[in-house]
Predict the 3D structure of the following.
Amino acid sequence: TLETGWMGLELRIFNFYKHSTKKITYLEKKRFSDATHSAILVNYDGKDNWVGLNSIIRFYTKNKAYVLSYGQKQIHLDFDVYLKKFHVGRYQGTRRASSYASDVYVKGVGDVNISMNEPLKHRGLTFYQASFSEGENGEAVASVLSVNQDPGRWWKYIGCIIMVFGICHLFYYKQFVARRKRRKTNV
């Protein structure tokens, strides 16, 4: 039993496995869902190794190291985004992140703060603060931005306006028809 000294909280360790290892397995599925991710099977030096989406694997020889990355398609931007500082807010008394934001510099725009609810819009792209990576000591080591390009955004706005106009017209027209019926029955 380990006493934390915080509000009488105690931690009990029931089993400790000194030589445990992390093992990730992949199963073949016929259909994709939100819970599935793609992976590739790589055979190196007679051993099969699975590499999941957005992950890497390292192979070593006597004098060289190879890094294989399997990830989503990368698109080169014609401008640079420099991370100046990353901020993580934590829930009180925990290590769980409550908020996180990146202070970035973009040439032509200047210093910008990208947070979870405030994206950066630049040259038709929207940069969202997606997540971050932590090191072994729990300190943030990388900021993860999600980039979105939505050239059809105005079509969505126009569609919404047409729908709102149609709904308003429907309610007005319904009242108009009801008034006409009342007039005809009163005559």
Notes: The chain has one helix and twelve strands.
